[in-house]
UniProtKB/TrEMBL annotation:
PROSITE patterns: RESPONSE_REGULATORY (PS50110). This is Response regulator receiver domain-containing protein. It comes from Salinimicrobium catena. GO terms for biological process: phosphorelay signal transduction system. Residues 3-114 form the Response regulatory domain. The keyword Phosphoprotein applies. The modification 4-aspartylphosphate is found at D52. The lineage of its organism: Bacteria, Pseudomonadati, Bacteroidota, Flavobacteriia, Flavobacteriales. Keywords: Phosphoprotein. It comes from the Bacteria. It holds the Pfam family Response_reg.
Length: 115
């Protein structure tokens, strides 16, 4: 079972994405902010990161950059999400999903990272 870490500050979106992914047989761990995510990622590593760009205590772009620069996580796919579709730098992310997103498109794009 593939494990996915989600970092999303909006509780409704976080719960929806977590539900959708668990129904697709992914193991999911969700975080409301960068701080709790950073504590956990030091102890365990998933198969994919799904990061919101705008967080209350950080920035998904910075998290992505750090993950891609770390030897332990550089090989793990990162998918960024944002309501601001004009993101001009993805900091090494493997994909970008604009919010609001289509549920089927979200699942398809995440699935492609494991193909």
């Amino acid at each position: 079972m593939k494990k996915i870490f989600i970092v999303e500050d909006d509780e409704g979106i976080r719960e929806l994405v977590e539900f959708l992914l668990t129904t697709q047989d992914y193991s999911v761990q969700a975080f409301p902010n960068a701080r709790t995510f950073q504590k956990t990622v030091k102890e365990q590593v998933p198969d994919l990161f799904l990061l919101d760009i705008m967080l209350p205590d950080g920035n998904g772009l910075d998290l992505c950059k750090d993950l891609k620069e770390s030897e332990e996580t550089s090989h793990i796919p990162v998918v960024l999400m944002s309501a601001h579709a004009n993101v001009d730098r993805l900091e090494g992310a493997n994909d970008f999903i604009a919010k609001p997103f289509d549920v089927d498109e979200l699942l398809l794009r995440i699935g492609k990272q494991f193909a």
